[in-house]
Amino acid sequence: AAETMAAVKRAYLAVYNWAVFFGWAQVLYFAVDALLRSGHEGVYAAVERPLQLAQTAAVLEILHGLVGLVRSPVSATLPQIGSRLFVTWGILWSFPETRTHILVSSLVISWSITEIIRYSFFGTKELFGSAPSSLLWLRYSSFLVMYPTGISSEVGLIYIALQFIKASEKYCIRMPNKWNYSFDYFYASILVLLVYVPGSPHMYTYMLGQRKKKIKSMFLFGTSCV
């Protein structure tokens, strides 16, 4: 029974990882195609639906961590997925004025390259029990460039959206109301920006630590790594 459950778990995780991999591959293809055909202004329109699907699918990763399907700590995945969902839905989907900015291109390309590598790495591990050292190296090295470009794009787009958030008063709840509660999306977005200040270096340092461990194990155990 235990062996059957382990096989079912691996099969599910393999399907999940490869499905999301293909989603991000689609995002990258559409982004580069739009960039070459019509410039950065057309990138968001080309990738909107696959971007929303691929990024929202990451919510399952939080559930995987909570129920013990994967070993990744929820404390590491939750902030990253949360911030990306905020940008995907709370900024780009909610405020169309941001969609033609050049930062959308750097955001989408940084995210998709990172995720294509990450999901193919985990998908290969689930299918074959290990991943080639070249894929492991990419998984734990590409973030050195992709994380700063991705984070800079996220922060830039939230900052650009602030003027539109303030002008529209979208998602704001004003007093008086029957709940005796108020909410200002403009100040909530500023709070999100402030969280990036300690959050980004912390996440980058965490990933550097992971890289050191994984690269070391790669050299210790040969050409493939579990």
Automatic annotation (TrEMBL):
<dbReference type="GO" id="GO:0030497">
    <property type="term" value="P:fatty acid elongation"/>
</dbReference>
<dbReference type="GO" id="GO:0005789">
    <property type="term" value="C:endoplasmic reticulum membrane"/>
</dbReference>
<feature type="transmembrane region" description="Helical">
    <location>
        <begin position="12"/>
        <end position="32"/>
    </location>
</feature>
<keyword id="KW-1133">Transmembrane helix</keyword>
<keyword id="KW-0443">Lipid metabolism</keyword>
<comment type="similarity">
    <text>Belongs to the very long-chain fatty acids dehydratase HACD family.</text>
</comment>
<protein>
    <recommendedName>
        <fullName>Very-long-chain (3R)-3-hydroxyacyl-CoA dehydratase</fullName>
        <ecNumber>4.2.1.134</ecNumber>
    </recommendedName>
</protein>
<feature type="transmembrane region" description="Helical">
    <location>
        <begin position="143"/>
        <end position="165"/>
    </location>
</feature>
<keyword id="KW-0276">Fatty acid metabolism</keyword>
<dbReference type="GO" id="GO:0030148">
    <property type="term" value="P:sphingolipid biosynthetic process"/>
</dbReference>
<dbReference type="Pfam" id="PF04387">
    <property type="entry name" value="PTPLA"/>
</dbReference>
<keyword id="KW-0812">Transmembrane</keyword>
<keyword id="KW-0275">Fatty acid biosynthesis</keyword>
<dbReference type="InterPro" id="IPR007482">
    <property type="entry name" value="Tyr_Pase-like_PTPLA"/>
</dbReference>
<feature type="transmembrane region" description="Helical">
    <location>
        <begin position="185"/>
        <end position="208"/>
    </location>
</feature>
<keyword id="KW-0456">Lyase</keyword>
<keyword id="KW-0444">Lipid biosynthesis</keyword>
<feature type="transmembrane region" description="Helical">
    <location>
        <begin position="102"/>
        <end position="122"/>
    </location>
</feature>
<comment type="function">
    <text>Catalyzes the third of the four reactions of the long-chain fatty acids elongation cycle. This endoplasmic reticulum-bound enzymatic process, allows the addition of two carbons to the chain of long- and very long-chain fatty acids/VLCFAs per cycle. This enzyme catalyzes the dehydration of the 3-hydroxyacyl-CoA intermediate into trans-2,3-enoyl-CoA, within each cycle of fatty acid elongation. Thereby, it participates to the production of VLCFAs of different chain lengths that are involved in multiple biological processes as precursors of membrane lipids and lipid mediators.</text>
</comment>
<comment type="pathway">
    <text>Lipid metabolism; fatty acid biosynthesis.</text>
</comment>
<dbReference type="GO" id="GO:0042761">
    <property type="term" value="P:very long-chain fatty acid biosynthetic process"/>
</dbReference>
<dbReference type="GO" id="GO:0102158">
    <property type="term" value="F:very-long-chain (3R)-3-hydroxyacyl-CoA dehydratase activity"/>
</dbReference>
<keyword id="KW-0472">Membrane</keyword>
<keyword id="KW-0256">Endoplasmic reticulum</keyword>
